[in-house]
Design brief:
The complex is a heterodimer of chains A (about 180) and B (about 70). Chain A is α+β, with helices and mostly antiparallel strands and about 180 residues long. Chain A contains 4 helices and 9 strands, in the order E-H-E-E-E-E-E-E-E-H-E-H-H. In chain A, strands 1, 2, 3, 4, 5, 6, 7, 8 and 9 form a 9-stranded antiparallel sheet that branches. Chain A starts with a strand and ends in a 5-residue tail after the last helix. The mean pLDDT of chain A is about 90. Chain B is an all-alpha fold and about 70 residues long. Chain B is built from 3 helices and 1 strand. The radius of gyration of chain B is 15 Å and the shape is elongated. The chains are: A alpha+beta (about 180), B mainly alpha (about 70). At the A-B interface, helix 1, strand 2, strand 3, strand 6 and strand 7 of A face strand 1, helix 1 and helix 3 of B.
Chain lengths: ~180, ~70
């Protein structure tokens, strides 16, 4: 995700996430931080609360946490780009008991620096070893999680063109890893 | 006393909600109480004191560490 200015890069990043999110929620992208180069990553969520309620019989909620940096891009026409540095996508049940969580959080006192999945108490797996395990995954995007929600978890899409929207935004947000 | 709305005008002209420090603190505090039965401040003190050093991989701990960044 790139831009002619730092602000434009953030705007473009937010626009893509917002468009993908619109397939399952009317929540708005919420940023804690700013539009400038910073050693400390900026923080992004779907707000205003920790979880957004989703439609569908499963009565799931979704929490999105993304940290990103604005860094220089090698393309002179769009010299700024967004690089995701951390993500957490968590589905919870109606009582906010967490079900599954996709994590990538390198460098936070954790020995696990690769992307992974947690099956949490709400998943009712029943085996403690699995419940505590970091199940390896590839790089997961918000787009992937929204598609999973609709196609596998019974979340009701909010727009008829959700497939087109997710195809369109997938091509962009698949390149955000920082 | 009126409470501040969480919808416009706090959505900026770019269509992005710019979370305030107070909103970030509230979100983090609620999560700490839900997940650990402690306040956000108590979690930060415990984390910085190394009280979770034997379980830094716990999803709940990681989650709160990440959410604490919204409260700064």
């Amino acid at each position: 995700m790139t831009g002619r200015t730092e602000t434009e890069a953030v705007q473009n990043f937010s626009d893509v996430l917002q468009k993908a999110a619109s397939c399952i929620t009317d929540s708005v992208v919420s940023i804690r931080g700013g539009y400038h180069v910073s050693v400390r990553p900026h923080r992004l969520t779907l707000g205003p609360d920790e979880f957004v309620r989703l439609g569908g019989e499963g009565r799931l909620s979704l929490s999105v946490i993304l940290f990103y940096r604005i860094i220089e891009n090698s393309e002179p026409r769009e010299p700024w780009r967004i690089a995701t540095t951390t993500y957490s996508y968590t589905f919870a049940d109606e009582s906010l008991q967490e079900v599954i969580a996709y994590h990538w959080h390198p460098g936070r006192r954790s020995a696990v620096s690769d992307p992974h999945l947690h099956l949490q108490s709400g998943a009712k797996v029943g085996r403690r070893d699995i419940a505590n395990a970091h199940l390896p995954t590839g790089w997961v995007t918000l787009n992937d999680v929204i598609r999973l929600a609709i196609t596998e978890l019974g979340v009701t899409p909010r727009r008829e063109d959700w497939r087109d929207v997710l195809d369109e935004t997938r091509a962009i947000d698949g390149h955000l890893r920082g | 006393m009126s409470t501040r709305p969480k919808t416009p005008p706090y959505i900026n002209e770019r269509g992005i909600h710019e979370m305030t420090l107070e909103e970030g603190q509230e979100m983090f505090d609620k999560a700490a109480r839900r997940l650990m039965n402690m306040s956000g401040d108590e979690f930060v003190r415990a984390w910085e004191a190394g009280e979770f050093d034997d379980q830094p991989e716990r999803p709940e701990v990681i989650r709160l560490v990440l959410l604490s960044e919204f409260a700064k």
